[in-house]
TrEMBL record:
Location of the Cytochrome c domain: 116-206
InterPro entries with a match to the protein in the record: Cyt_c-like_dom (IPR009056), Cyt_c-like_dom_sf (IPR036909), Cytochrome_c_Oxidase_Subunit (IPR050597)
Naturally occurring in which organism (per UniProt): Pseudoduganella lutea
Superkingdom of this protein's organism: Bacteria
Region listing for Disordered, in residue ranges: 212-235
Keyword Metal-binding among record annotations: yes
Keyword Signal annotated: yes
Record field: compositional bias (Low complexity): 212-222
PANTHER family the record matches: BLL4483 PROTEIN, CBB3-TYPE CYTOCHROME C OXIDASE SUBUNIT FIXP
Signal peptide: 1-20
Keywords from the UniProt entry: Heme, Iron, Metal-binding, Signal
Name of this protein: C-type cytochrome
Alphabetized GO MF terms: electron transfer activity; heme binding; metal ion binding
Length: 235
């Protein structure tokens, strides 16, 4: 989707989205209350460069993002508006709800790329580049890149444009996490060509619908990450 189509979609959606804190009405189930979220976060796991899927991502990862929007570390006006005034226990319920959904993945077109680009992307993801202090993505995102519960998301199944956009946001500080912000540090060490290679390789990997986040990292994380339980990583 182009940026102008994205903005058009927001303009069309905005008036129809009403979202409120829980009430005691008996028909007021969580699924029903969260239906407005699906206007942008497609229920069937469809992927989009601008509207990320949220179903099936690890619970604490989703919870941390809701806090990040609420507290201004991530910026998207509609998201801030939606979660800005909600109490933390309710944000926790929302995160639990979406983390427990596992809709089948809808494949995106595999990006065209040269063998060199793919090889470079694969190398950075699986091994990193010690000389440039770039840790392997698998060291935190799991050996199978399906994430590590409870707070690190998977990387397979994300569209290339979405990954590129997130790296751009980390580099220009539009996306931040609780300190220490390990992804901002990783992003700062990658060149634009590195990011393009990594996102292209990741978006070319097959997705296994039955895969779930690993329950623990295979080894201590190479850096510490705010919002992630301490796995003994170096500061
Ligand atoms: C008008 C469209 C819109 C609506 C409605 C909306 N969101 Fe979002 N949401 C977005 C966009 C766009 C982003 C990505 C912003 C960015 O790139 O930082 C986002 C990001 C998120 C993220 C972070 C995803 C990730 O993988 O990092 C979560 C969690 C989230 N939204 C939850 C919700 C919940 C819960 C609701 C309903 C209460 C909701 N959203 C309603 C547009 C929307
Ligand atoms: C030291 C651990 C660590 C390393 C190494 C690491 N990541 Fe991350 N990554 C994280 C954490 C933690 C988050 C969640 C950040 C947050 O809460 O916003 C994350 C989030 C992400 C996201 C956001 C996913 C989404 O759904 O929005 C992407 C994309 C990503 N990382 C890509 C990468 C790539 C590519 C590499 C390798 C070049 C990498 N990461 C290396 C810890 C790491």
């Amino acid at each position: 989707m182009t940026l102008s189509r994205f903005l058009l979609r927001i303009a069309l959606l905005a008036p129809s989205i009403a979202f409120s804190a829980p009430t005691a009405a008996p028909s007021d189930t969580l699924a029903r209350r969260l239906a407005p979220c699906l206007a942008c976060h497609q229920p069937q796991g469809r992927n989009d460069a601008f509207f990320p899927h949220i179903a099936g991502k690890p619970e604490d990862y989703l919870y941390n993002q809701l806090l990040n929007f609420r507290d201004g570390r991530r910026q998207f006006p509609m998201m801030t508006y939606m979660v800005g005034n909600l109490p933390e226990p309710y944000l926790r319920e929302i995160a639990q709800f979406f983390a427990s959904q596992h809709p089948p993945h809808v494949p995106a077109p595999v990006p065209a790329a040269t063998a060199q680009v793919l090889a470079r992307g694969r190398m950075l993801v699986l091994q990193g580049d010690a000389a440039r202090r770039i840790p392997a993505c698998v060291a935190c995102h799991g050996q199978r890149l399906t994430g590590v519960a409870p707070a690190i998301p998977g990387l397979v199944g994300l569209p290339r444009d979405y990954i590129n956009a997130q790296f751009g946001a980390w580099k220009n500080r539009a996306r931040r996490a609780q300190a220490p912000d390990c992804m901002a540090d990783v992003a700062a060490r990658l060149t634009e060509a590195d990011v393009a290679a990594v996102s292209t390789w990741l978006a070319s990997q097959p997705v296994d619908d039955a895969a779930r986040p690993a329950t623990a990292p295979a080894a201590p994380l190479p850096m510490r990450c705010g919002g992630v339980p301490d796995h003994g990583g170096a500061p």
